[in-house]
Amino acid sequence: MTQLRPLAAKALLDAPQPPQVLDVREAWEVERCMLPGSICIPLGQLMSRCCELDPSRPVLVVCHHGVRSWRAGRLLESLGFSSVINLAGGVEAWACEVEPTMARY
Description:
Layout: E1 2-4, H1 6-13, E2 20-23, H2 27-32, E3 39-40, H3 46-49, E4 59-62, H4 67-78, E5 84-87, H5 90-97
């Protein structure tokens, strides 16, 4: 699994064919802030809902600090997803490095 810091992830998201963005935080966290276009599936539901993702496309996995997203990425890899990217530092780092006006918690 690839680890990307927020600025590198933003460049990837700004590319002509960006990856899917999977947010594995809980609903209350997503209500506070999220990356636009994210597919929101809490980590505890990922096994039963992974069919909502396209395994042939890269997936950028996001959480608050990068730990749950790392676990989710390992799960996706075990399910056959070949291109999984973890947002190192999560949305907290994204808010600090890319989008300072983003709500933080």
